[in-house]
Amino acid sequence: xxxxxxxxxxxxxxxxxxxxxxxxxxxxxxxxxxxxxxxxxxxxxxxxxxxxxxxxxxxxxxxxxxxxxxxxxxxxxxxxxxxxxxxxxxxxxxxxxxxxxxxxxxxxxxxxxxxxxxxxxxxxxxxxxxxxxxxxxxxxxxxxx
Length: 145
Known about the structure:
Rossmann fold; cytoplasm; PTS_EIIA_man-typ_sf; phosphotransferase system
């Protein structure tokens, strides 16, 4: 099974993992690393390095593109060139839930990554646009405009 490592600033990682467990229960092969104010980037790198197993596929999910957690995850990934690792930025709860369930399907690692990027982007909506789309769909089904 694909391993998942969540990293982010402050208590983002442990917080989003807590939310996942509240909604979907506990899952194996998922770890959270909080990048707190008392840590250095070297501390974060070291924790990530210790978690990576060169034999498993690992998806590292980060809070922000370009932040220290993202940069350190990329640095660690580059030091495991024979491993199957990818780093995704912009993690939100919907993306994490999708990750946990989609990794249980027959998708390959690359297909899973592509799927997560697609559904994560589609999951960001605003209510005005969404409600207008719903109203239009309902009118079309009822024979209206």
